[in-house]
UniProtKB/TrEMBL annotation:
Record flagged with keyword Transmembrane: yes
GO biological process: protein transport
A Pfam family matched in the record: ExbD
Membrane topology type: Single-pass membrane protein; Single-pass type II membrane protein
Species whose genome carries this gene: Candidatus Chromulinivorax destructor
Entry keywords, A to Z: Cell membrane, Membrane, Protein transport, Transmembrane, Transmembrane helix, Transport
Identification of the protein by name: Biopolymer transporter ExbD
Molecular function, one GO term: transmembrane transporter activity
Amino acid sequence: MKNFRSRRGRRAVALPEVSLTPLIDTALTLLVIFMITTPMMNNVIKINLPSSSVNEGNSRDQQETIVYVDKQSKLYLNGAEMNLQAILLNLQKMSQHKEIDIVFVKADQDVEYGKVIELVDIMKTAGGIKYVALATQRAVH
């Protein structure tokens, strides 16, 4: 506590002094505790999922539609080299006969990301395509 004396010489008034250091220490300790325990809480619940005898179909039964983009930005639809307009026409023809669930885009990692996204956007406008998915390779550690 600090004592102050007024100008007129009156008795000193004691002002309470609040130390914020313990409060800040407590707050930071709680923050660290929550940062450590929150990721652990996601793995606490262990469940065994029930099994089902219903066969939901084999995804290999459906023919996959794949658009490849190589390092030189050449486009291929299911292995055949085409330009963008030809790919769009073929996708539209394919979607007229049967709705295409997913078109996989397998682009080389050296292809500019913006070009891949532009390709995805253009394919989405073709119509009849539910999803356009970007394929990746599983990382081996």
